[in-house]
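Re: that backbone. C-alpha cells:
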C-alpha cells in the first residue's frame, strides 16, 4: 500500500468506503423500521392503532360498542389517544433502532 500523498491527511478512499457503509446501514435500518409495527390502544382496548416504525398508521380497530351516535366526541378522543400513543411508540422504536445502528458503526450515540 502506498503512502498518502499528503502525510497527516485522512485517506479519502477509506472515508468514502466508510460513508458508503454508513449509508447502506441507515437504509437497512429505515427499511426495517417500515416493516416493524407497534400497537397502542385507548379506552381499555376499545380503540387500537397499529403504526409502523416509520410512523405510518396502518390499522385502526374500533370496538362497535364504543360507537355511540349521541357521543361522537368520546370516539374521536379515543382515536386521537390511540393514534398519538402509537406514534410515540413508533418514535421510540425508531430512536432505539438508530442508536443500535450508530453503535454498530462506531458512531457516538445521538449522532443519528
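Recovered sequence:
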Amino acid at each position: 500500500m502506498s503512502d498518502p500523498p499528503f502525510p497527516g491527511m485522512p485517506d479519502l478512499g477509506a472515508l468514502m468506503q466508510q460513508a458508503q457503509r454508513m449509508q447502506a446501514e441507515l437504509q437497512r435500518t429505515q427499511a426495517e423500521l417500515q416493516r416493524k409495527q407497534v400497537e397502542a390502544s385507548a379506552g381499555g382496548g376499545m380503540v387500537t392503532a397499529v403504526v409502523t416504525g416509520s410512523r405510518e398508521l396502518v390499522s385502526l380497530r374500533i370496538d362497535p360498542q364504543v360507537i355511540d351516535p349521541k357521543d361522537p366526541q368520546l370516539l374521536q378522543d379515543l382515536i386521537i389517544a390511540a393514534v398519538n400513543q402509537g406514534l410515540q411508540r413508533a418514535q421510540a422504536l425508531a430512536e432505539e433502532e438508530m442508536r443500535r445502528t450508530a453503535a454498530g458503526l462506531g458512531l457516538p450515540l445521538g449522532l443519528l
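The chain has a mean pLDDT of 89. The domain at 36-104 is CATH 3.30.1310.10 (Ybab; Chain: A;).
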